[in-house]
Amino acid sequence: PPDSFYIGEIQRMAELYYELPLYVHIFTDDEHPERIAESYKDELEGIDVQFGWEENPSHSDPDQILRDFYSMGQFDCLIHPGSNFSIMANIIGRSKIDIMPLHYYRIGLEPIIDEVEITTR
Known about the structure:
- By secondary structure, the chain is an alpha/beta fold.
- The protein has four helices and five strands.
- The longest helix has 14 residues, at 3-16.
- The protein is globular.
- It starts with a helix and ends with a strand.
């Protein structure tokens, strides 16, 4: 999904839990997750949010992949792309809120998410 999906859902969580600071952990294959965090911070100005990520990502390390898989489901809220990896991580995890895109269409190359699935435990 485009960054706008994640930013919008973080904003939604901030509105629901306005009295609490948010911690957002970025799970990504990107070599520079800090750049993602910086761009999100710019979009989320005024929201009390702290970002974290794997400091030295090794996307070929099976141990790190398993740590990520296990960790995804340990957060109160999991906002994810709907990949099999993230869906299974949430099933075995214990996230109270699960958010993923359900339907999208494209304008040119840009995906536009028009339906989101939110489930709670």
